[in-house]
Design brief:
single chain; about 500 residues; seven-stranded antiparallel beta sheet; 26 strands
Length: about 500
């Protein structure tokens, strides 16, 4: 099988916003406790944070972490997580029916974020709370003057402001499962007034308003239109959430799910621009895909978890080889929409539907999905080039025309590199040619592949067999020729010269 990618530096999609490679930590399951924080672990630092987890997070090079939820957010009182730890209340978390000890709160998470080299994408509770709690939290985090909340922050040990710049206005407020679920009218009005109050405290904030919880919600479309009618001039991003799974055990259909993500993004962009036109606005609303991943392996287990435990294992999907392939396709899809998707958060980061898993009595390890995300986060920086792809296609029960080749190229002028990411969906070898237009490639710095595993094979604490392996199956002429193995994730890094 043959396939071809044509790129030209004169035809680009957008500069990549680094926040496209964000992630998510929610107070649920073992994401926080036994995930990022476990003071009795051999690798724990002086603050109780697992250093083996921090090392892996640093490998992922994540610029932004959404916190503290998630469904947890809609019943959370942020004040429970400040002040002396011994005086903090234990609360029932109604979202996941667990007990939250509040041992980790705002100050501790901020300290962890500094060690992880990431910024916080803070979320405010618009389920059980509203304007007052949100504006107070902004004042606590960001105000540098003499006021009640900023002085309380200082008395709790943080003299300088945290300066959180990206904020989510609630979480999945369209979902009937959400504590404080609201209609689009109710949420739109509350989000608009909350946004105005927050920006009065700090006008540099960038705000994310809730879109639909997923594209198959019965209110999808109408929800976005109504919410944006109320909030358009006060917010900067509209959120999208979507998870994928292979419940039907149909590989070909599963690997085509990135086409669903593509259609979802395209549809939401159209809605945003329709509201812009209706309002005669000069402002463009961009997108925050602040929950996306693969989620289906743990569903049966989670139904059997007894309620009211502290940090029980929840949503602990063990990802396999086919999940890794789809995740690569989803990453490429996000890059294709980098002109409008400026923020994205892989949900989540540790233990809970996560690239990193931990054994409380052992090590942390990299799941299969860790590696495509790591490579794109580290090397997908720069300008995304408009792809012209020639590939054979196939049809599935849900998708009429699926290209066997999924690919994108990013040029990084600072590093003088061209980087190509590609997934071969076919079960046969693909001869892949990259035609470069006015770009001149001096050498292939790295050609790595993940291939050759059984589709249900997983990584474990003792074996990370599914990981990138260097390949020499490439040649250079006026372009780059690579041999892509069947069912493979691929990264090609090229050094650029002058043409």
């Amino acid at each position: 099988m043959k396939a071809r990618l044509k790129v030209d530096k004169n035809f680009s999609i957008s500069e990549v916003d680094p926040r496209l490679y964000g992630s998510f930590i929610e107070h649920m399951g073992r994401a926080v406790y036994e995930g990022i924080y476990q003071p009795n672990h051999p690798t724990a630092d002086e603050d109780g944070f697992r250093k083996d987890v921090l090392n892996l997070v640093n490998e992922l090079n994540i610029p932004l972490v959404r916190y503290p939820g998630g469904n947890f957010l809609s019943g959370y009182n942020w004040e429970d997580g400040i002040g002396p730890v011994s005086e903090r209340p234990k609360r029932l978390d109604l979202a996941w029916r667990t007990v939250e000890t509040n041992e980790i709160g705002l100050h501790e998470f901020y300290k962890w974020s500094q060690k992880a080299g990431t910024e916080i994408n803070m979320a405010v509770n618009l389920g059980t709370r509203g304007i007052d709690a949100a504006r107070n939290l902004v004042e606590y985090c960001n105000f540098d003057g003499d006021s009640y909340w900023s002085n309380l922050r200082k008395s709790n040990g943080l003299e300088s402001p945290i300066n959180v710049k990206t904020w989510c206005l609630g979480n999945e407020m369209d979902g009937p499962w959400q504590i404080g679920h609201k209609t689009a009218e109710e949420y739109g009005r509350l989000a608009a007034e909350t946004a105005k109050a927050m920006k009065l405290v700090d006008d540099s904030l960038e705000l994310v308003v809730c879109g639909s919880s997923h594209s198959h919600m019965p209110t999808f479309g109408d929800w976005e239109m109504t919410v944006l009618e109320h909030t358009y001039e006060y917010v900067d991003y509209l959120s999208l959430h979507q998870y994928y799974g292979n419940q039907e055990d149909n590989l070909e259909n599963y690997l085509a799910r990135s086409l669903d993500m593509d259609g979802f993004i395209t549809g939401v962009i159209a809605i945003c621009d329709a509201v812009k036109a209706k309002k005669h606005s000069k402002k463009t609303i961009n997108l925050s895909f602040d929950e996306w991943n693969i989620w289906y392996h743990s569903n049966d287990h989670d139904e059997k978890v007894k309620p009211w435990q502290v940090a029980p294992p929840l949503l602990e999907d063990h990802y396999n080889f086919e999940d890794m392939l789809l995740l690569g396709c989803l990453l490429i899809t996000l890059l294709k929409h980098s002109n409008r998707v400026k923020i994205a958060c892989l949900a989540q980061l540790v233990n809970v539907i996560a690239p990193i898993m931990t054994n409380p009595n052992g090590d942390a390890w990299r799941q299969t999905i860790f590696f495509p995300f790591m490579q794109v986060s580290n090397y997908g920086r720069g300008t995304v080039l408009q792809p012209l792809v020639e590939s054979e296609t196939y049809a599935t029960k849900d998708f009429e025309k699926v290209p066997y080749l999924e690919t994108i190229a990013v040029v990084n002028e600072e590093q003088n590199e061209l980087v190509i990411f590609a997934v071969n969906r076919a079960k046969e070898i693909m001869d892949f040619r990259i035609e470069l237009g006015e770009l001149a490639v001096e050498d292939v710095v790295e050609f790595s592949q993940i291939s050759g595993a059984e589709i249900k094979e997983v990584n474990t604490e003792k074996s990370e067999r599914i990981r990138p392996v260097t390949s020499q199956e490439f040649t250079l002429d006026t372009g780059v020729n690579c041999r892509l193995q069947p069912l493979s994730w691929n990264m090609v890094r090229c050094s650029l010269g002058k043409k």
